Amino acid sequence: MTWVSWRLHRTQLLIAGAFAVAVVGTMSATGTSGAWVQEDGLRAQVIVTLYALPVVAGIIMGTTVTARERERLTNRLAWTQGISRTRWLVSSLWPVALAGAVGVGAVSAVATWWVDAVHLGTRIQPTSFDISGVVPVAYFLGALALGVLAGSVLRNEGLAGAVAVVATVASRVVVGSDVRAHLAPVRHQALATAPPFDLGPIWSAVPGTATLQDSWVVAQGFVPVGRTSPVPGHPWLQVNVLYDRCPSVTQAAQVSRDWVRECAGSLHLHYVAAYQPLGHYWVLQLGEAGIFVAGAALAVGLAVLLLRRSSE
């Protein structure tokens, strides 16, 4: 079965391998030559590729394991030769999972170096976090398992792939936006003033925020003095709410740090940033990877159950 699995997936594996080599070569060239300074477009293309590679590779390989075999009815040949459906799936899946995980892991290792080389931002910030460390391998395994599960329900390979794409993207969005920030204790820092509102949270321009420059700021805004987060049920307040409460300033152009500090003080508010420090990088990486690996195991388990109960 292992040889059969290799024959079935060798085209995808070879194409993915060649593609990965090209991406690694591009990262090596841009990371060592400083070409990223002149080629921001090239850097953006590399980032998009690193985002897509684990998902695309996982879904294509996963749907091939189940949907293509069921669509072509070749699975029945194995099932009528005394091979159980569980053994058939496991034997078909593990070589692909191992080869893909090793390949994605190698690309991720180079990407972890590349992120620092091209000054993409500290690794804990979302753009860098998703393409470095161990989470890309977990993303690949999650996409692979969802492809297998979708193919266990739908015989059409294209339709199964589309369903797996939607499920994979949804899981990435939910975990990235609602779960990741809570995988380690969030720290808070009260600021003497707010960051420059016309330029966004450029922490280097705000006194006392050296720690935040290398951190992932997950939320920020005005909260009541004595608190480090909003009152339950209330949002983080931004500078626009001060316009109504301190009517002496009516236009954004008139805003100054002194005015913001005085207005916020009169309203008993202070500016707070909630953040994950760079030191939490591996805690978040391992926590998020664990979520996707556990989800992959669950999806494969459901696929086994569905195939065993199938009337084929």
Can you tell me about this structure?
This protein is mainly alpha-helical and 312 residues long. The chain folds into two domains: 2-183 and 280-309, no CATH class; 187-277, no CATH class. The protein has helices at residues 2-33, 40-72, 75-79, 85-117, 126-129, 135-153, 157-179, 210-213, 240-245, 257-266, 281-309; strands at 187-191, 216-224, 269-276. The chain has a three-stranded antiparallel beta sheet.
Descriptors:
312 residues, mainly alpha, 2 domains, three-stranded antiparallel beta sheet, 11 helices, elongated
- Give the overall silhouette: elongated
In the sheet with the most strands, the strands line up as: 1-3-2
Rg calculated over all Cα atoms: 25 Å
Q: Which percent bin holds the helix content? A: 55-70%
Question: What fraction of the residues are assigned to beta strands by DSSP?
Answer: 5-15%
Domain module tally? 2
Please report the number of helical segments: 11
Overall mean pLDDT: 80
